[in-house]
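Sharing a chain and its predicted structure for anyone who wants a worked example. Both blocks are below, sequence first, tokens second.
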Amino acid sequence: MNSAATATFLGENSIGVEVIFQLLFKELQQSTKASSQNCHDVATRISAEVHRICTESKRIQASGAIENSAITLARHRLQQCLRYYMLGSNRGRVELHSTLSAIIYRYINPPQKQLSYQGRLTIIEDFLQSFYLEALNAFRRENQLPATYRPQTLLELAEYMAFTERYGKRRIPLPGRQQQLIILRAQTFSQQQPPETSVDIEQAAEGSNNEGDGSWEEPAVQQLRSTMATQAEPEPEEDTLRSVVITELMDYLEQRQQTDCADYFSLRLQDLSAQEIEEVLGLTPRQRDYLQQRFKYHLIRFALLHRWELVHEWLEASLHTNLGLTPQQWQVYTAQLEEKQRSLLELKQQGLADEKIAKTLGLSMAQLQKRWFKILEQAWEIRNSLVSGSSAFTHE
């Protein structure tokens, strides 16, 4: 498309922008219960953002397919907004918080301080509260909204949450690489935490058994403790479990010094393509494939051995539900197990401790874990392969 055509499409009174606005407006009216004015306002803001991006992007300008790029971008923005709208206020917040927490988890590490798992989550919570405010200010600024604007309706909240996720994932050019904005903010925030502040926050989160510790009586600590103890709206159990699985897997990878796998996992959570992951991590396709296989190995170990109960509870595939198998699948599954495997499975279903099971079956703990790993792996393959036709962990 030549410059004249570009001007026509992206001009203030262009037909192209009006077409995009109408597309968004119509879809919002059909997919939400928001008022007509609410849909109009959101569609207007998304259209303006698409206009700005297509105008400023040299890649889009040079592509010769500006209108197609604009429509694709508009649909993408729309789907992000509708996704949070469908989740609702509470679940949407949990999803956004979980996504951003997973990205920054390994970067929250105050200097000269080794935080516990709970301590790190508390620091992340503190950081994200300030980041949400930064994102709101950026949303106001980029959409030319007044400083007093706040999302009032569910659609406006969904629009803001979708913007916040994109804002955090923005690539900031650095010498020789690019880094996501939220990671840079998290690193700066972490470095600015005084060691004594980190200790206080961790104590406030976990409590203290040292009655002689005078710092526990300080008013600031008492206030923090009181604030953190305030009852919040309970999160849906499935969302809470998802968040725990993500953070514990991150912790598991870091404990085993698999920081590159943690980086890969963080990028996978963002639905980045293989090519985008290679660009961010500076890898060749072959190196990325090797890293993917190594991550898959650790993922399987985590899901079928290290924290199998947590993962299976999240997947609604616990022992109480026959490992998530249908009655027909359960018959096939138990029939193919060896006698010793069936005995191990029955003892597990009775809730016996591993030490007692090992003694009953005459196995070492290592042998017990190996056999249990194989039992869970067989169930996983049946649950996934027979339904979807794909092998276990294909989609990680």
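Comments welcome. Confidence is low (pLDDT under 50) at residues 1-15, 196-218, 227-235, 386-396.
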